[in-house]
Amino acid sequence: MKPAVTSDLDDRFFEGMVQGHTHLYDAIEIQPVSDLYAHPEEGMVYETDYVNPTFFSVYVHLKTGGVECVGDHGTHSLALAYASELSEEHGWPVNDYVPRKFHDKPATEPRDAALA
């Protein structure tokens, strides 16, 4: 079975999540992420992963604290491009929390949960 996360993953869902409520946000974050369960039947549990990320997510930061995910990307450069577009459109700063060693490289293949 081919993994759902590939280097060309470029899911953008700002419009459906945030549009019309942009006054609630003040920044953008990029984080390295992994799905702790590699098998969909086990559910999805996403967590930041600074060691072996499987993809990169873009979040908008709430003024009151916390974040909401607005995009998932197979490479850091795709995530950065999307974050930059949102930043230019809304004037929010981009906080990139992805370690430099993962810039310009695709994330790793999802881990097999049995081996993790």
Distance from N terminus to C terminus (CA atoms, Å) equals: 18 Å
Unreliable stretches covering 5 or more consecutive residues? 110-116
Order of helices and strands: EHEEEEHE
Give the fraction of residues assigned to helices. Answer: 10-25%
What's the gyration radius in Å?
A: 14 Å
- How many strands appear in the DSSP assignment? 6
What would you say about this model in short?
The protein has helices spanning 14-17, 76-90; strands at residues 10-12, 25-35, 46-48, 55-62, 67-73, 94-96. The chain is α+β, with helices and mostly antiparallel strands.
Blueprint (SSEs and pairs):
Elements: E1 10-12, H1 14-17, E2 25-35, E3 46-48, E4 55-62, E5 67-73, H2 76-90, E6 94-96
Parallel strand pairs: 2-6
Antiparallel strand pairs: 1-5, 2-3, 2-4, 4-5
What does this structure look like?
The protein has 116 residues and is of the alpha+beta class. The chain contains 2 helices and 6 strands. Strands 1, 2, 3, 4, 5 and 6 form a 6-stranded mixed beta sheet that branches. A hairpin with a 4-residue loop joins strand 4 (55-62) and strand 5 (67-73). The longest helix has 15 residues, at 76-90. The relative contact order is 0.27.
Keywords summarizing the entry:
116 residues; alpha+beta; 6-stranded mixed sheet
